[in-house]
Amino acid sequence: MYKSNKKAWMTGEIFEEWLHWFDRQMKGRKVLLFVDNAPSHPQVNLKNVSVKFLPANTTSLCQPMDQGIIQAMKLKYRKKQLQYVISQMELKQGKSGFDLLKDISVLDAIYWVARAFKEVEISTIVKCFAKCGFQLNSVESESECTVLNDSESDEEEDDNYPIALHVMARQLFDCDFMELLNIDKEFKTCDSEMKDWDRPATELLSEMKEQVSDETSDCEDDQLQEQEDNVCSTNECLEMIEKLKKYAVAHGNENLLGTFVDAEDIITSQKLVGNTKQSKISDFFAKR
Question: Are 131 and 147 in contact (CB under 8 A)?
């Protein structure tokens, strides 16, 4: 379910509508749903779902999603976002990375969020819940309750990401790639004080104080040279996948769309990891 409003905030009306939809989906079951204590989360009586609110002002302590699940998802999301910009800079050489970033649609973001969450390790989710007291076994060692550092440290370490991602993060957001996790940390998702509803969205966005670099450098041309003329290039594959994604959306085929998004993700990842030339330290000090 996708909903929007002028401020991109969760509201009581939207949340209540979602709860009733979720309750219908859970027909025939008995579900206990834990929810953050927020003004936009009203108490609703449902048939199949019992809603319980976490104690107020304790999100960092007893909200499982805040123990590392959201952090892992954000890291994967930002990776997909920057991979897309890098690949599009080759397809649309007349556009800078900053211009391509502005061209990203809400639908593109929804693709990446959905795929990023599916890629979060099950062990990460289990351990984050266990750290907050949600565990099957009453006796569990503290070492087994650790979160992101133990569960995904091998794949999420800074050094494991292509240097192109780090360079693009610095160019577009003026920060390191790992710092992108906290770039929107203080951004409100609902009106916690239930006031100032008349303020324009531009003022709310300005409060984020995101520093975006207007200067972008030309990407080094590293397009693959195919050995056979009848084999399409990586860029041609990405163009075809983009058309196939639109086809799946037009026909409302969710499974087909997911397959195309997965294929796009695999191709862009393989292109960056397997074919990007290693930059030299002198390149960063060269005159532009």
Answer: yes
Report yes or no on whether pTM surpasses 0.70.
no
Q: What is the pLDDT of residues 52-102, one digit of tens each?
A: 998 887 777 888 888 889 999 999 999 999 888 888 888 888 788 888 888
The distance between the two most distant Cα atoms of the chain, rounded to a whole number of Å, is: 67
Residue 104 is encoded by which pair of tokens? Answer: 């990203």
Instruction: Tell me the per-residue pLDDT of 100-146, one tens digit each, with 9 for 90 and over.
Output: 888 888 888 988 999 999 999 999 999 999 988 887 664 444 444 44
Pairing of strands 49-53, 31-35: parallel
* Rounded-to-integer distance, Cα 222 and Cα 248, Å: 30
Confidence of residue 223 (pLDDT cuts 50, 70, 90): very low
The upper half-sphere exposure of residue 283, i.e. CA atoms within 13 Å in the direction of its Cβ, equals 11
**What angle separates helix 234-250 from helix 254-275, to the nearest 10 degrees?**
160
Tell me the torsion sign for CA atoms 108, 120, 74, 18: positive
In this predicted model, which residue has the larger pLDDT, 112 or 185?
112
